[in-house]
Write a sequence for this structure.
């Protein structure tokens, strides 16, 4: 069996049989990437077929420019999966823009931010939410964290990854991930309590907390 | 915000093939970019299940479209659609196809108004930038064959495309008018429909 890099070279050279092999070898990971991305965005799988075609068109475009740009730093299949995921997000965005009959692309407005997602997991008095938009609040809270702790929380709560998966990605032992996650959440809780205390005192909530300043 | 992570850098990150400096750069971006966080998560899940992907079910028509696109790009003609129909007791039924059997209310615009439920079938396949729709209408002893061609994006009929039909009685040629190439009644047998710049349709009529 020819290796992945050799196969890419043959595809770039316009070998039709190489493209058939390419399809046989990578169709499953491409299609699985599309389906999984659609599922995480709560989209029906019906557009998967068109997205698959989009991905292929992208790979063929400009004399296989995408293939020629591949430097061999990652596995070919991982790289292709990323291209498929990106194409799916773009397709979903186009579809939603069309559905809303709105010329402006509203992008990911229907998806909350990772900061909001994390905020849902920490107890916060509703009084704060009335005066400060939840996203602003969440961002202010997250700023108190170490960058890597923040990343771990985002991957866990927003990306939906398991602690084991995060440990593999950031290359930190699993038990360290667990303890850092707990510590970061505890820090967020006390930061939220502090913010609540300051806000209820009416002392220094900042301009976001000014109801008239929105 | 820093520029989003390139396709290959993100893939290398998930594969664990990056140096510490690039790792710092990527993680520092990730913590500020929800879109990249989302993509990393999906990418991690998909690549972790790489070994079990053989069971992913991909519809035949998706692969047929992909093959057609490659053939269109690299110049060799391939079959874009295989269709086997059976004609019995004045009704046409699809025995096997790689295309999509359309419900009567989704038939191409030129065919509307004359359709009779159960008397005709429409089978559609996307081939590159064109949609090919083959209609078989049961009439008397022999079904009528029509080929419709539409632009995939706009659904506008394609005009002036040459369509050749090769079958038991030799070859016939039509130029699509208003997206329609009408070949009239056909006897049972094997046919090849060659559509200029699109591809070929293999058709078998059983009686």
């Amino acid at each position: 069996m020819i290796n992945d890099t050799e196969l890419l070279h043959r595809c770039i050279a316009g070998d039709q049989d190489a493209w058939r092999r390419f399809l046989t070898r990578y169709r499953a990971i491409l299609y699985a990437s599309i389906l999984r991305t659609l599922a995480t965005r709560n989209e029906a799988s019906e557009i998967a077929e068109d997205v698959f075609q989009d991905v292929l068109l992208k790979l063929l475009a400009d004399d296989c420019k995408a293939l020629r740009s591949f430097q061999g730093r990652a596995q070919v299949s991982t790289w292709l999966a990323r291209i498929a995921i990106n194409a799916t997000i773009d397709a979903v965005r186009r579809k939603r823009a069309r559905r809303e009959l709105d010329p402006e692309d509203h992008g990911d407005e229907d998806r909350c931010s990772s900061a909001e997602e994390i905020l849902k997991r920490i107890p916060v008095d509703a009084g704060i939410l009335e005066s400060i938009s939840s996203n602003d609040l969440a961002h202010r809270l997250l700023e108190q964290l170490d960058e890597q702790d923040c990343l771990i929380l985002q991957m866990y709560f927003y990306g939906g990854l398991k602690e084991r998966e995060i440990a593999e990605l950031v290359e930190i032992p699993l038990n360290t991930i667990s303890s850092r996650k707990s510590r970061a959440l505890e820090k967020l809780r006390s930061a939220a309590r502090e913010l609540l205390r300051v806000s209820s005192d009416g002392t220094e909530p900042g301009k976001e907390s000014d109801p008239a300043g929105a | 915000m820093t520029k989003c992570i390139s396709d290959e850098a993100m893939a290398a990150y998930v594969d664990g093939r990056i140096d510490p400096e690039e790792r710092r750069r990527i993680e520092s971006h990730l913590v500020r970019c929800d879109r990249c966080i989302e993509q990393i998560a999906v990418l991690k899940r998909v690549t972790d299940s790489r070994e079990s992907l053989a069971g992913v079910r991909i519809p035949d028509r998706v692969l047929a479209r992909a093959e057609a696109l490659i053939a269109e790009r690299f110049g060799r003609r391939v079959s874009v659609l295989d269709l086997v129909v059976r004609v019995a007791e004045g009704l046409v039924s699809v025995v096997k196809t790689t295309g999509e059997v359309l419900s009567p209310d989704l038939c191409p615009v030129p065919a509307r108004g004359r359709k009779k439920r159960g008397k005709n079938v429409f089978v559609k396949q996307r081939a590159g930038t064109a949609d090919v729709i083959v209609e078989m209408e049961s009439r008397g002893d022999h079904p009528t064959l029509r080929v419709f061609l539409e632009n995939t994006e706009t659904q506008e009929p394609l005009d002036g495309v040459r369509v050749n039909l090769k079958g038991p009685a030799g070859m016939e040629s039509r130029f699509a008018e208003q997206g329609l190439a009408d070949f009239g009644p056909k006897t049972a047998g094997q046919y090849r429909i060659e559509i200029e710049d699109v591809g070929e349709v293999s058709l078998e009529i059983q009686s």
Q: What stands out?
A: Chain A touches chain B through 56 residues (CB under 8 Å). Confidence is low (pLDDT under 50) at residues 204-214 of chain A. Chain A has two domains: 4-99, 114-213. The CA atoms of residues 41 and 111 of chain A lie 8 Å apart.
